[in-house]
Amino acid sequence: MDPLAETTTHVADPPPLKISRMLHAPRETVFRAWSSPEHVKRWFAPEGILVPEARIELRVGGPFDVCMRMPNGVEHWTHGVIVEVVPNSRLVIEMRPGDGDGHTFFHAFTEIDFSDTLGGTRLDVTQTYTLIDRERAAAMVGGAPEGWRSTLDQLEREVVAMQGGSETGDRSVVHATFHLERTYDAPAARVWKALTDPAAKQKWFGGAPGSWEPIERHMDVRAGGAERLKGRWESGTVSCFDAVYHDVIPNQRLVYTYEMHLNGKKISVSLATMQLKEDGAKTTLAVTEQGAFLDGYDDAGAREHGTGLLLDALGASLAD
């Protein structure tokens, strides 16, 4: 039994903390950043705090122990036990932050959910607190929202580095091609309208309502015309899609190039071709994309998956 457990009898526990972040990386990469001690040591603390030691065994009942060294040299341990593991989807940890003498300040039941979103991975963290040492826990729990914000900033930099890029001037380019097809119960003219009419495209091309706020949207589908879609995600991240159309054959073919920017940084340049083939009352849309993914901010797997989600959303919009 924790020697300080009795102090929780008359203490009201704070409400759960919920924080989300969109990370421009596949779920597998983000999950790996949580599950490897070497990765965790590089990001699992607010900026300015070091993590000299981490012990993690990715199994139910396994440890998730992290030592945080403050700027003044004082070390605080967070001892955790892994409660649930669903690879690349969910991680639940019972965390017990404390000091070097073995005193626990509070319990933090921490649920981390990883889900696909346009452009990468949505990370949702929910932390439910049970106070043990009220005096010591109050400041730490009160500062948790800002602490998590800074910690997830560190995580964002780590997943960039894991993909071969950095924000320190190092440069990398990964070239890749993917091809996707969808067959819709709609004539080619209707699918074409969903691709080229601003009102029709707005129904499927963008983030989900509530998680994404449009900032700027316009399109001019003609040879030499341009399209821009800029929006802010729930995490505060701003993404921008800038396209130029090069070949436009109504109901048959679109060829365009586009750049993607994330918080003002160029992350990729791509050439995309969309071809429509009508067969009776159905239309097959074939999409081929050749991309140059820049400085670790993206990879072909994430872009391909995100494009597939968009094509599915396009299909749903045709049923309206």
Q: Could you characterize the architecture of this molecule?
A:
A hairpin with a 6-residue loop joins strand 9 (212-219) and strand 10. The chain is built from 7 helices and 14 strands. The protein is elongated and about 75 Å long. The strands form 2 sheets. Strands 1-7-6-5-4-3-2 form a 7-stranded antiparallel beta sheet. Strands 8-14-13-12-11-10-9 form a 7-stranded antiparallel beta sheet, covered by helices on one side. The N and C termini lie far apart (59 Å). The longest helix has 19 residues, at 144-162. By secondary structure, it is α+β, with helices and mostly antiparallel strands.
Layout of helices and strands:
Layout: E1 17-23, H1 27-35, H2 37-40, E2 50-56, E3 64-69, E4 75-86, E5 90-99, E6 106-117, E7 120-131, H3 134-142, H4 144-162, E8 173-184, H5 188-196, H6 198-202, E9 212-219, E10 226-233, E11 238-249, E12 253-262, E13 265-279, E14 282-294, H7 300-317
Antiparallel strand pairs: 1-7, 2-3, 3-4, 4-5, 5-6, 6-7, 8-14, 9-10, 10-11, 11-12, 12-13, 13-14
